[in-house]
Amino acid sequence: MIKVSVVGAKGRMGGNVVGAVNDAADTELALALDAGDDLTRITPENTDVVVEFTVPSVSLDNVLTLIGQGVDVVVGTTGWTDEKLDQVRTALASAPREDQAVFIAPNFAISAVLTDYFAGIAAKYFESAEVVEMHHPNKVDAPSGTAIHTAHTIAEARKAAGLAPVPDATETDGGSRGQVVDGIHVHAVRLRGLNAHEEVLLGNPGEQLVIRSDCFDRGSFMPGVLLAVRNVSSHPGLTIGLDNFLSL
Amino acid sequence: MIKVSVVGAKGRMGGNVVGAVNDAADTELALALDAGDDLTRITPENTDVVVEFTVPSVSLDNVLTLIGQGVDVVVGTTGWTDEKLDQVRTALASAPREDQAVFIAPNFAISAVLTDYFAGIAAKYFESAEVVEMHHPNKVDAPSGTAIHTAHTIAEARKAAGLAPVPDATETDGGSRGQVVDGIHVHAVRLRGLNAHEEVLLGNPGEQLVIRSDCFDRGSFMPGVLLAVRNVSSHPGLTIGLDNFLSL
Amino acid sequence: MIKVSVVGAKGRMGGNVVGAVNDAADTELALALDAGDDLTRITPENTDVVVEFTVPSVSLDNVLTLIGQGVDVVVGTTGWTDEKLDQVRTALASAPREDQAVFIAPNFAISAVLTDYFAGIAAKYFESAEVVEMHHPNKVDAPSGTAIHTAHTIAEARKAAGLAPVPDATETDGGSRGQVVDGIHVHAVRLRGLNAHEEVLLGNPGEQLVIRSDCFDRGSFMPGVLLAVRNVSSHPGLTIGLDNFLSL
Amino acid sequence: MIKVSVVGAKGRMGGNVVGAVNDAADTELALALDAGDDLTRITPENTDVVVEFTVPSVSLDNVLTLIGQGVDVVVGTTGWTDEKLDQVRTALASAPREDQAVFIAPNFAISAVLTDYFAGIAAKYFESAEVVEMHHPNKVDAPSGTAIHTAHTIAEARKAAGLAPVPDATETDGGSRGQVVDGIHVHAVRLRGLNAHEEVLLGNPGEQLVIRSDCFDRGSFMPGVLLAVRNVSSHPGLTIGLDNFLSL
């Protein structure tokens, strides 16, 4: 039984994590803390793994405190810069336990992680590739960080394989061809009713491969969070990306 | 039996029309002419309907000549301006036969015509609407004329229903949100292997309606061409758009 | 302001209706009743329209009582047989008010209603047609009532147009071709993560038309429920199907 | 420059291979033979690799003859039984050249091969999985061999991971749930206008992963045939499946 504490337990994601930890057969809830609570109540005695789902402005401080407490941490909060990640690495180097672990995932949805991974494998076999992401209309950034990441994944695979640029005879366009990320066209749709979806289109003469991830709600993150909770402690140091915990 | 002559019979579309006319049970091929052939060989004696599939630079002259010959004409060539259309109307006004007919279609694919028509009906019931068109990478214009037309169809339906603008909280975007046509975002994908495809996405809280047309090859135009051949003569004057021949 | 009472207010659907009625600008909540409550508290003085969302075993009795109270009723409960509908018609014939109205909808999702309606229009123009419905794996009936309805809609349109049966050279099949409803093949997918989705595929040589409805959650029914609330009173007698309230 | 002979050159697939071999920069056409032609004209002097695209009734004899001629063979003909494969292995054991190679692929479309491969990787991470294949209505077998193969791939991955059977509460069904292959439901759609398409649907709470292959025409096989032509000679013995030549 893995003892799991949740930081940000009153937030929408954190609340879902509390439920998922309670429901899973191999995890049990230790402490459920939120803003204002004392994080030093979390110790190796009551907690194996902490799940931190708060906001970018406080997440780094939380993680540094939790490292100091000697517990392993799974981080779901976004907004991590290289500088912040370096601070985490430094803190881990002088952590109480030698094999202490922190895991950060830009996206916990297994379908999204696999879409990115499969796009990277398939890209070198196709002449064309484009990315279409679709989200609810309240999202403020476009395209999504996940779509940008996938575009880079595709672009790197194409470069490694020595592929020519994607074919495109477009002469006149008023903006419909989307944003070009590292040579790959990325399109963002905003539609009421949708949540978070990504589609990778790969084309050859006479054939198309489509890889699509649909995240219908926050519940889509829970299998990935639990996967991280189960695997973080066997991966000492800082690990970034759920693909590290999948057998790919 | 409808006697059909084809002008532009050696072109890719015209060649397909010749085959479709030969295959259909209620049509028979009269004359198959191409560049350099004398169009005045086509007369009411040998021909009921002419299908003209050539290039924009010669199509107007062909149509005016054919009107003068006293036959009905189905035009598949694109590039028609308001000025050119007026010349056709003028010619029809003094045509040999009183009930003579010319039909021009921007798109002969029934799936594409219905997608546009359905989008217009559905648009007023949905908070969000976007258009994604997908074509082969040799296409020079983006977005497609059909997608622009569909965006206008949606926009007009929304205005008539008094809908607010589509919701969109996007604050930062490098171009991924596509081209805004009359308030509707239009995206163009270019992918080897595809031919001509259009997808209309309509969203409400908790639901989505998707209407999609796939034109896999030139054969997709033939049912629409035959529909026009069968209906043109009962619609005297100039008719534009295949929706006029569908029972909608 | 339309005064709306809700019967079944503690159920999952009823609870959503209460929220939708509170949120909409032109409706206000009158009474929210549930099992055990006295329905005769609902009167023309406090209520314009009642929304009934309970279970098939009690819905008929509820509706008959509400008709006797002299109010208009929108029914979301399923399980209506011809016999039950006749009882409603009889009750309406001797209702307190002459123009009293009851509305029953098999499906309140506008995207689902339009998918069915568009399938009926498009069917006569396509050689092939099949229906694929996709639901969560807790659903006990397959295929869905909506998919069966759509298959009948398509079949009737094909018959009216004199179309031949759909082409199908299948010689060996172990069940993969699905259930044949009135000549139309219907397939049912059950997948964790999905809610209620239907896809109509229509095919001609070289082209395909796809019409798809995605109902991601119960919220997808609310725009349709509000549409019914706003329209029921101007349609005296028994009306079945949301398409009657759409301008189609 | 790889010297390629084609057996079955007048067939539809063989004709496409001749074109692809002529078009590619690193291959040149040696002999183009068809039924009635003497296969012993093909020798190591004029040919590096033979592509055999004929019919099941003659393919084994052709391959055995070609092995005897001392050339490497890429086989696109279907209908290979274990017994036939054993005859190929036996012939290879006493072939003129020690490192002689034969390659047989059930499917040359890279998108189809990757769909099957990705389904195998992803299957263990999802609670639900179903397969939908879609083909032209002239196909006599349902479901397709490729879909059956994918169902087995998914089933084996689930078993290896110790997953429970897919959830399915269906109580009443008239056949819409499709054919159950090794515990996985497989659906077959037949639609005019389509060619060969396969969709794998994988579901978890709140999320879906879709992997789809579209083979629009015979041209979709050519990149795979060329990949095989380039790789067969470095894989002595009998190799089955294009995945062996992909860097997966």
Layout of secondary structure:
The structure is a homotetramer of 248-residue chains.
Chain A: E1 2-7, H1 12-23, E2 27-33, E3 49-52, H2 56-68, E4 72-75, H3 82-93, E5 101-104, H4 110-122, E6 128-135, E7 141-142, H5 145-160, E8 172-173, E9 179-181, E10 184-190, E11 196-204, E12 207-215, H6 222-231, E13 237-240
Parallel strand pairs in A: 1-2, 1-3, 3-4, 4-5, 5-13, 6-10
Antiparallel strand pairs in A: 6-11, 9-10, 11-12
Mind explaining what this structure looks like?
Four copies of one chain form a homotetramer. In chain A, α1 (12-23) crosses α6. The first copy, chain A, has six helices and 13 strands. The first copy, chain A, is elongated. Chain A is of the alpha/beta class and 248 residues long. The model of chain A has no long low-confidence stretch (mean pLDDT 96). Chain A folds into two domains: 2-104 and 219-245, 3-Layer(aba) Sandwich (Rossmann fold); 110-216, Dihydrodipicolinate Reductase, domain 2. In chain A, strands 2-1-3-4-5-13 form a six-stranded parallel beta sheet, with helices on both faces. Chains in contact: A-B, A-C, A-D, B-C, B-D, C-D. Chain B binds chain D through residues 193, 195, 214, 216-217, 220, and chain D through 193, 195, 214, 216-217, 220.
CATH class of the largest domain in chain A: Alpha Beta
Low-confidence runs of chain A: none
Main beta sheet strand tally, sense and closure of chain A: 6 strands, parallel
What is the tally of helical segments of chain A? Answer: 6
Oligomerization: homotetramer
- Backbone structural class of chain A: alpha/beta
Proportion of β residues of chain A?
A: 25-35%
Total domain modules of chain A: 2
Mean pLDDT of chain A: 96
Which chain pair has the greatest contact?
Answer: A-B, 49 and 49 residues
EC number (chains A, B, C, D): 1.17.1.8
Protein name (chains A, B, C, D): 4-hydroxy-tetrahydrodipicolinate reductase
Keywords (chains A, B, C, D): Amino-acid biosynthesis, Cytoplasm, Diaminopimelate biosynthesis, Lysine biosynthesis, NAD, NADP, Oxidoreductase
Pathway (chains A, B, C, D): Amino-acid biosynthesis; L-lysine biosynthesis via DAP pathway; (S)-tetrahydrodipicolinate from L-aspartate: step 4/4
